[in-house]
Amino acid sequence: MSFKINPLIQQVEPPPISEAMTWVSQSPSNRALINLCQAVPSYPPADELADEVARLAHEPATGLYTDILGTSELRSALASDMGQDYGAMIAPEKVGITAGCNQAFVAVMMVLAGAADNVILPVPYYFNHHMWLEMLKIEPRYLPAIKNGSVYPRAGDAERLIDARTRAIVLCSPNNPTGAIYPPAIIDEFFALARQHNLALVIDETYKDFRDSPGPPHDLFSHPEWDGTFMQLYSFSKVFALTGYRVGSIIASGKVLAELEKVLDCIAICAPHISQGAALFGLKALAEWKAEKLQMMAARAQALKTALARADLRYELMSVGAYFAYLRHPFPGTSAKAVAQRLARHHDLLCLPGSMFGPDQDGYLRLAFANVEAELMPEVAARLIESQEE
Ligand SMILES: Cc1ncc(COP(=O)(O)O)c(C=O)c1O
Fold first, then answer.
1. What's the 263 CA to ligand 1 centre distance in angstroms?
2. Ligand 1 centroid vs 332 CA: distance in angstroms?
3. Is the pLDDT of residue 245 over 80?
């Protein structure tokens, strides 16, 4: 090659899911693979939503760009839906629609920080958050979340990581990869810490609909000055099974959104118009469908928990919730990647090694169980047990 590649991009590991998929093709077995690798729902979008998309496709306006921050109908509907869920008033002007939650993260980090600034990131982290910080040369300051049997990061531990170049604290709850759902009191502590140090608190709440209790995930939106500190990122990908449609959101102050608009304009101009229509339909017409799916996911989590309670299983369940379970594997001298590769090649079980989610995670595996039906969970446990023989 006669030209140089940006070393900031070159140094980043390849996308983890694509790498893991290569392990499967090497399996010599005929047994069907259990795929616990990617966080995708195992079902398609609702039929009514597909009909609505077909209708929208015939509307000439659907072929046009929308406003950069999304259609006013979707911004209003999401503001009202979130307001109900969190028991707070959220103004539509504080909602921006993005082409997926990953894009919301990318854009918000560009707005908040630059090269040589730093951002506090609990470990294990969602790998795309980390990849993006590396690409921008923003230093991730690691905050260990797994400590003394707990899987929650603590604001008290974060304080010593803050210096003059710290710009934000990033949380993800329900968490990818652990599935841990942070109690509101813990989120409150982070809000107070961020406020005290004039930092942004960015919470990726992609999985908030899949939480295990009907109460609000936190009460930050009720704080009179929430938007001076807090920004919420969200996704339509999981809740309405729209991963390929690319719709997400950010809720933040008007000041942040004005800056965000510049970034979004350069990346994709707007989220796909037709997909915004699909998301709007989901919010307005699919409450029952959504409740049914959430119940099914909760049943999958419970079935996995029950299946993993076998006394002869030496993998230890650290936490489970929303879409994920995080396990400690029973091979202390072996890397998580070697364990995951062996599970894929010899036991037809595909999951991701903890090492893809940050430093000191070599003892763990992530199971993304949303893709697998409840009836299959005992077989997941059986294959893990089978792997103990080696
Ligand atoms: C924590 C988290 N944030 C964001 C995303 C991506 O969401 P989207 O499809 O809306 O970009 C995912 C997808 O797995 C995720 O796990």
1. 19
2. 30
3. yes
Other residues' Cβ atoms within 10 Å of the Cβ of residue 214? 6
Judge if the beta carbon of residue 122 lies within 6 A of ligand 1: no
Task: Give 210's DSSP letter.
Answer: G
User: Radius of gyration of the chain from Cα atoms?
Assistant: 21
DSSP one-letter string for 276-314: HHHHHHHHHH-HHHHHHHHHHHHHHHHHHHHHTT-TT--
Helix (H, G, I), strand (E, B) or coil at 119: strand
Q: Give residue 23's pLDDT.
A: 86
**Which pair of structure tokens corresponds to residue 67?**
């406003």
Phi and psi of 183, rounded to 5°? -65, 145
Structure confidence by residue, pLDDT tens digits, 290-333:
999 999 999 999 999 999 999 999 999 999 999 999 999 999 99
Count the residues in the chain: 390
Q: What is the DSSP letter of 153?
A: -
Decide if pLDDT at 158 tops 90: yes
Q: State residue 73's pLDDT score.
A: 98
- For residue 308, how far is its CA from the centre of ligand 1 (angstroms)? 26
Edge-first strand order for the sheet with 316-321 is 316-321, 324-328, 364-368, 352-353
Please, which residues have CB within 8 angstroms of residue 153's CB and are 6 or more apart in sequence?
Answer: 122, 143, 144, 145, 171, 182, 186, 190
Q: For 52-80, what is each residue's pLDDT tens digit?
A: 999 999 999 999 999 999 999 999 999 99
CA atoms within 13 A on the CB side of 128: 13
With contact defined as beta carbons under 8 Å apart, do 172 and 156 qualify? no
Write down the pLDDT at residue 27: 59
- Work out which ligand 1 atom sits closest to the CA atom of 235: 10
Q: Whose CA is nearest to atom 14 of ligand 1?
A: 39
pLDDT of amino acid 25:
64
Confidence at residue 1, expressed as pLDDT on a 0 to 100 scale: 76
Work out the mean pLDDT of the chain and round it to a whole number.
Answer: 95
DSSP state letters, 318-371: EEEETTEEEEE-S-TTS-HHHHHHHHHHHH-EE-EEGGGG-TT-TTEEEEEGGG
Contact indicator for 175, 125 with CB cutoff of 8 Å: no
**Confidence (pLDDT) at 71:** 98
Angle CA 373–101–300, to nearest 5: 15
